[in-house]
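Aim 2 progress update. The chain analyzed this quarter is reproduced below.
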Amino acid sequence: MTAPTVRIDDLRESDAPRCAELEALLFPGDDPWSENAFREEVRMGHLYRAAREGDLLVGYAGLAFVAGPPQAEAEVHTIGVDPAHQGRGVGRALLRELLAVADAERATVFLEVRTDNDTARGLYESEGFVVVGVRKNYYRPSGADAHTMRRDPR
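Predicted structure tokens:
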């Protein structure tokens, strides 16, 4: 589980520069999100959560609802954790925060993950996601494929 010093709260527009910094570090071969992309997601009112150690943002995650009841659907837009904090349960804690909100709405949740990212796929599978398809050349500019994964509401 997360270290006692890591807390989860709302992502703020002022976190955008740090998120973009982590994106560039975590996704160098693809098209990492910019500061502006993070600001826009927060402004649009999507659910974005932050993991912080003291004043330092060490992780972030976002979820958007794409269909409402009676068959609600949501998409995990992004999850990222500073490499220095990986393996400590930060990503799992962030994901569970998103899933709790989705489950409260009885939403089916979808996401995409690189087919070569075994660690992330393992996390998602352990939280109830299953692979339902492959998107060829999904990530740009690398051309990496993605698994589409789905989790039914709990």
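The helical segments are 16-26, 35-43, 90-104, 118-126. Residues 90-104 form the longest helix (15 residues). These observations will guide the mutagenesis experiments scheduled for the next reporting period.
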